[in-house]
Design goal:
The protein has 190 residues and is an alpha+beta fold. The chain has one domain (5-176): Uridine Diphospho-n-acetylenolpyruvylglucosamine Reductase, domain 3. It has 9 helices and 10 strands. The strands form 3 sheets. The chain has a 5-stranded antiparallel β-sheet. A 3-stranded parallel β-sheet has the order 1-3-2, covered by helices on one side. It has a two-stranded antiparallel sheet with strand order 8-9. The longest helix is centred in the first third of the chain and has 10 residues, at 12-21. The protein is globular and about 50 Å long. Bound molecules: flavin-adenine dinucleotide (FAD). Flavin-adenine dinucleotide binds next to strand 2 and helix 7.
Length: 190
């Protein structure tokens, strides 16, 4: 057994301060990767800083230039269902629709997914293909500079992804191989 302290942040600067004050803190978004990792004792953070209740990094906005800004704490189901995303970047909505199952899509977030950068994950390929920009509490990255290797990104230890901005695109489509190993039941959103 080990002790983990839970903190609920209400602003990004709150979260950054909590992370700074922790011995070995970890940011928590949907928990769909981090919690199983903790259960398997592959991670044992001293503190969990929950980002899910920070309004400034949640939600989707179509900007004046037509680009789509998706807050880091936005779950996959919200991306899949968003009318602006479906109209401007239908391939991105389809991608979000194929992630995991309904539970994973309602808990997992775009920020958590790209910070984790699992080579099997869906979003990283889309960010690269669409030339997305990643915003953090410190700076901005192009997708090419952000993803540095398997499970590796250019983020500093204490850096928080706040949003992903997708420029307009003339055509988008997404296809992927179903996971052959797990044989879990799989259902895209209808
Ligand atoms: C059964 C199952 C099926 C899945 N299927 C798919 C799939 O088909 N395709 C796919 O792409 N993914 C899949 N996933 C992964 C899923 O998309 C997760 O949502 C994602 O990997 C992690 O997002 P999260 O919000 O849960 O992050 P968390 O688990 O909370 O965090 C993951 C990591 O990112 C860090 N982090 C979280 N948020 C931030 C932030 N804003 N800034 C900086 N660091 C941050 C955390 O500290 C942690 O290290 C699946 C997961 C499960 C459990």
């Amino acid at each position: 057994m080990y002790e983990t302290k839970y903190h609920r942040a209400s602003t990004v600067s709150d979260a950054a301060a909590m992370l700074k004050n922790a011995d070995d803190g970890k940011l928590l978004s949907g928990g769909q990767t981090l919690i199983p990792t903790m259960k398997q004792r592959l991670a044992a953070p001293s503190d969990l800083i929950d980002l899910r209740h920070i309004d400034e990094i949640a939600g989707i906005m179509k900007q004046a230039d037509g680009s789509i800004r998706i807050g880091a704490a936005t779950c996959h189901a919200d991306v899949a269902a968003n009318e602006d995303v479906k109209a401007a970047l239908p391939g991105l909505a389809d991608l979000a629709c194929t992630i995991g199952d309904p539970h994973v899509r309602h808990m997992g977030t775009i920020g958590g997914s790209i910070a984790n950068n699992d080579p099997a994950a869906d979003y990283p390929a889309a960010l690269l293909a669409l030339g997305a920009t990643i915003e953090t509490n410190k700076r901005e990255f192009s997708a090419e500079d952000f993803f540095t290797g398997m499970f590796e990104t250019a983020l500093d230890e204490d850096e928080i992804v706040t949003a992903v901005v997708f420029p307009t695109a003339s055509n988008t489509a997404y296809a992927k191989f179903p996971n052959p190993a797990s044989r879990y039941a799989w259902q895209a959103c209808l």
